[in-house]
Amino acid sequence: MEALLSLMIGTLTAGGVYLLLRARSFAVVLGLALLSYAVNLFLFASGRLILGAPPIIDPRAGQYTDPLPQALVLTAIVIGFAMTAFVIVLALKAYVELNSDHVDGRTDQEL
Length: 111
Fold this sequence. Notes:
Its main location: membrane. By secondary structure, the chain is an all-alpha fold. The protein has three helices and no strands.
């Protein structure tokens, strides 16, 4: 399970970095989203993956899972959604102003 999760985190990170290095603004937005998913999975996995264990410290329960990474992931999802919406609006404004979706503002004829 951990190997599969590590593989998924690595794949999402590699895809996110690849898309961040593209010259188009929407590819950059997708790259940021993929990187945020990778970080969320990493935070979630840092709380130990225990199936069926309650997230409450109870001496009667034999095992428990740490609720802090789950709370951090929920917070990161909300912040990531807000940042993605802001970057999309910023990219749309730049596209309308510059008539190009290149991150440096150049048009296709200038390249």
